[in-house]
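Contributing new records

If you add data, match the layout below exactly. Sequence lines come first and carry their own label; structure lines follow with theirs. Keep one chain per record. Anything else will be rejected by the validation script.
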Amino acid sequence: MTKKPTMSDIAVACGVSQATVSLVLNNAPGTRISSATRDAVMTKAAEIGYTTVHRRPDRRPVIAMIINDVTSSPHVAGLIDGVTESANERGLLVSIMPTGGDSDAEQAVLDHLAAMPIAGVIYARLITQQINIPPGLLNVPTVLLNCYTGDRSIPSVVPGDLVAGQTSALLLIKAGHRRVGYIGGEDTIEAARERIKGYRRALMMHDIALDPAIVFKGGWTIRGGYDAFKSIMMVPDPPTAICCFSDRTAMGVYAAAAELGLKIPEDISVVGFDNETYTADMVPPLTTMELPHSEMGRYAAEHLADLLASPRKTSRNFQVKIECELIERQSVKVLDRTGALPVA
């Protein structure tokens, strides 16, 4: 039985990606592909007898967003919104493909995509982490969202967690706090490792010694923040301010502080992380850092669109870190700004 010609056959013969072949054969709008490449693809398609499925003239090219989790955190909405909004602006449609973190489901998705005219892929993770790129994506234009490979060989975009950890601690130090505690996540979480590095860097910038007695790891939940804060406040010289790994951690700190008869920010200042929807309604409203999920999603889609438009162009930005925004509210008390660094 004769094998049916595929776009992959055309791509190999012409020395271009399968995505480029798809864009040419489907006459995708908004793409910048040379006339020589178009002619070569069309000639080879006719030569081997490849036929395309008839589509509407205005049919847009499709990119796939493969993500491991869409249910456990509201942060996923920012990633998806950023990707879809940017893709729509660039004339691309997005197919969202959740895998539930299941390797078999992910392989099924990859097998499905291999048989479809997909222009490119955004491979995403809900939690920032290093990954091994699936072999099925090695020959497909791909951008990694909220994850990266160890050798940085695939373009990726992640949040600037280290700088964000530094920013939150500096806010407290510039407000006059010299005893700044830290309640972080487990070391297995990359964001936790990066944020505490930023906290330590902020202390070093102001010649403040790190006191392990007021640093607690493993407190990323409400209960974790509650227990950690009570332990920290038992030291002989307790902190006047706390940096939290997450807003849930901060919720636990609020509850524990109330039980201890401490007022926020009069007795203890608190900075969270994530800018969850409820933080503006906490009493007092929580100062926090906002993860740039929407901006990351937009960058991933824009970069993928650029790769599709210029398939032979080599990317130089193999990893981009997008800064987290500081959201200042009413949970930080200014003690003394004497000697504080000027705001850049």
